[in-house]
């Protein structure tokens, strides 16, 4: 029998993910449509919090960039202003 993994919330539960600004790395920026480009229409293109359903693939990001509450995600952004 494979080892059991304890998950922090049920699959599909609403969680809050902190998405870094488009100036950090080269991920897709939902605001400017670019990949870390300086042409972002949001000035500056800041990190933001998105509300999404929990998926098992998020376990490695739990309490790093994925949180159970919006308050926890907001606190993370305040504590990491350059994220």
Along the chain, the helix and strand elements come as EEEH
Query: How many β-strands, per DSSP?
Result: 3
What is the share of helical residues? 10-25%
**What form results from the Cα inertia axes?**
elongated
Q: What's the story with the biggest beta sheet?
A: 3 strands, antiparallel
Structural class: alpha+beta
- Radius of gyration, CA atoms, in whole angstroms: 15 Å
How far is it from the N-terminal to the C-terminal residue, by CA?
40 Å
> Strand-residue fraction?
15-25%
Average predicted local confidence, pLDDT: 79
- Which residue ranges are poorly predicted, with pLDDT under 50 across at least 5 consecutive positions? none
Number of domains: 1
How are the strands ordered across the major sheet? 2-1-3
Total count of helical runs of at least 4 residues: 1
Key words describing this protein structure:
3-stranded antiparallel sheet, alpha+beta, 83 residues
Q: Which SSEs are present, and which pair or pack?
A:
Blueprint: E1 14-19, E2 48-53, E3 66-67, H1 70-79
Antiparallel strand pairs: 1-2, 1-3
Can you offer a commentary on this structure?
By secondary structure, this protein is of the alpha+beta class. It has one domain. It has one helix and three strands; from the N terminus they run E-E-E-H. It has one helix at 70-79, and strands at 14-19, 48-53, 66-67. A three-stranded antiparallel beta sheet has the order 2-1-3, with helices on one face. The longest helix is centred in the last third of the chain and has 10 residues, at 70-79. The radius of gyration is 15 Å and the shape is elongated. The model has no long low-confidence stretch (mean pLDDT 79).
């Amino acid at each position: 029998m494979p080892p059991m993994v304890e998950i922090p919330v049920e699959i599909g539960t609403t969680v809050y993910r902190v998405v870094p600004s488009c100036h950090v790395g080269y991920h897709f920026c939902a605001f400017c449509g670019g990949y870390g480009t300086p042409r972002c229409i949001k000035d500056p293109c800041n990190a933001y919090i998105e509300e999404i359903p929990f998926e098992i693939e998020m376990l490695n990001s739990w309490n790093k960039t994925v949180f159970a509450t919006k308050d926890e995600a907001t606190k993370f952004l305040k504590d990491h202003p350059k994220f």
